[in-house]
């Protein structure tokens, strides 16, 4: 039995007093009761609905102002689908978010087109170099001579301006976009390949706003300085009508946070949001969002991380960086798991495709390429479920013996190996058909535009086949490695071949 001393009595009293104080502090600082939570929710909902209503009114008012200001303007511009100077297919949607200066001409023009393009270049440089505006203008040169102007013809277009975009296409595509811009053009009749000729066309360039709407047109007699002043005025009007409203919307929400919740951490976080009002919509950002929101694109990124990390780990271990190599290996494990889970969703497109193809062609359709695809889909219907069964067993989600798990994994990869072999066969058949189409292609009479379009299509098809061959060359050693028990294929080899396949996929 311990003795009771004055020190123990004081210590016990202080402990009890501290416990009482802590309970009172916790009680007083309890953040919400049910009543306060309900009141907070009702207030927040009311404010949200009010400001949503006010925002809708502002948008409607802005729309009415734009419609009243655009009344009487000609309908110029519209959707298009053309080939740029890099050989890529582009549409009008790719240029949203930028002011455009659009000029129609042809690369063989001796004097007028170069003069007008110099004018477009000067206007673009004057405006884009303004620190208050920034890079807001994109110059575009659309060819009205599709017979001679392939995308290779624009090889020197950057000599005018580094941001200038050259666009061409078939005669029908050019005629359609020229009609939408009210541009006249004509070439001499009975022109043969190799003939020198001039194209008669309208001499205007057009200012289009970031929403793809027509703003103004400038003729040959208008000087570059006059165009610059005019374009700056239109840009200012556009920002005053649209940019200010966008900023006010953002700032108003920041004001709510700062005044209703003055001590909330959100008040500090809300201030930087006002910066978003100073940026324009970006087609590049749209493409990135679209890329990362698709399963194949995400799998491509994860695949590069998974396989390249093996190569990186090998170099780090040789350099004595074992600690860093271990951390990278720890990153590779969840990436591999995520890829397996993503492939679960790949089953549904396969099943949908098989059902659709049988309804469209029927089971009796005897087509070699189609039959190879049928066999490939069948291998995937074995490969994917077996891989998921292996993963569930390996992660001990389902109970399987190590021998059973190893066997399931090997058979999964064997079906994958069969798929890759079938893909080599599929590509060989496609390449033979492509070679035959190239032999049958002949330049005949005035049908030069069709021939050039088919040549571009054949080149694109050949590039695709070559890229898929490289992908399969990368994956085939991996399928053999994981299909054989006790394979001696080094891990760095898996990384190298996997990185090649992932890069071209």
Describe the structure.
The protein has 505 residues and is α+β, with helices and mostly antiparallel strands. The strands form 2 sheets. The chain has a 7-stranded mixed sheet, sandwiched between helices. Strands 6-7 form a two-stranded antiparallel ribbon. α2 packs antiparallel against α5, α8 runs antiparallel to α9 and α10 packs antiparallel against α11. About 9% of the residues have low confidence. One of its GO terms (biological process) is mitochondrial respiratory chain complex IV assembly. This is 4887_t:CDS:1. One of its GO terms (cellular component) is mitochondrion.
Secondary structure layout plus pairing:
Layout (H helix, E strand, L loop, with lengths): L5 H23 L5 H37 L10 E4 L4 E3 L7 E7 L6 H17 L8 E7 L21 E4 L2 H10 L4 E2 L13 E2 L2 E5 L5 E6 L4 H37 L4 H6 L12 H10 L2 H24 L3 H23 L2 H15 L6 H27 L7 H39 L7 H36 L7 H14 L1
Parallel strand pairs: 3-4, 4-5
Antiparallel strand pairs: 1-2, 1-5, 3-8, 6-7, 8-9
Helix pairs in contact: 2-5, 3-5, 8-9, 8-14, 9-11, 10-11, 11-12, 12-13, 13-14
InterPro entries: PEX11, SCO1/SenC, Thioredoxin-like_sf
Family: Belongs to the SCO1/2 family.
Protein name: 4887_t:CDS:1
